[in-house]
Amino acid sequence: MKSKLQIILLSLMLVAAQTVTKAQTRLFKDGNVWEVSFIKTKPNMGTEYLNSLKANWKAIHDEAIKQGLVLSYKMLAGNASNPQDWDVMLMVEYKNLAAMEGNDDKWDAIMKNVMGGDEAMKSTNEKRVNIREIYGSKVLREVVYK
Questions:
Q1: Domain boundary assignment for the chain
Q2: What is the pLDDT of residues 63-75, one digit of tens each?
Q3: What are the φ/ψ torsions at residue 16 (nearest 5 degrees)?
Q4: Domain 28-145 has CATH 3.40.50.2300
Q5: Where are the beta strands (DSSP E) in 5-122?
């Protein structure tokens, strides 16, 4: 009697293990990597902030695409859903995590060329403190279904 009970329990454990294994089968693969930043513009400063992004953030990323550092970028703007919410999302698409590393010299050269050197970059950053707050950023991997 004891061995029948052991066989039944073992069978149930095998079925359960197969169910768990089957449930963990990935129906997707890893896609491109996105660096996403969330920004809250200060009252009545949204247009000014977006205009400033065109002058340098867009130009920097256009050049980064030309040099193969990034695949694409997007800027999304909308109303905040509450007073603590962001209203601008900046997204930069990379081929993979490795593409985000080891290119500091290239990025520095692009930024200096587009923005005009260290003093100009410092001045732009100081001005932006008065028109926006960075809520944070995330690195996310795109999900691609097989």
A1: 28-145
A2: 999 999 999 999 9
A3: -65, -40
A4: no
A5: 28-41, 72-77, 88-94
Contact residues for 145 (Cβ-Cβ < 8 A; gap 6+): 27, 28
Q: With a threshold of 0.70, does the pTM exceed it?
A: yes
Measured distance CA(87)–CA(135) in Å, rounded: 10
Residue 100 has pLDDT above 80, yes or no: yes
Mean pLDDT for the stretch of residues 88-105? 95
Q: Which of 38, 111, 112, 101 is nearest to 70 (CA)?
A: 101
What is the rounded distance in angstroms from the CA atom of residue 56 to the CA atom of residue 53? 5
**Is 34 strand, coil or helix?**
strand
d(CA 44, CA 77): 14
CB 33 within 8 A of CB 95: yes
Encoded tokens for 6: 């052991």
Lowest-confidence segment of 2-6, 82-86, 93-97 by average pLDDT: 2-6
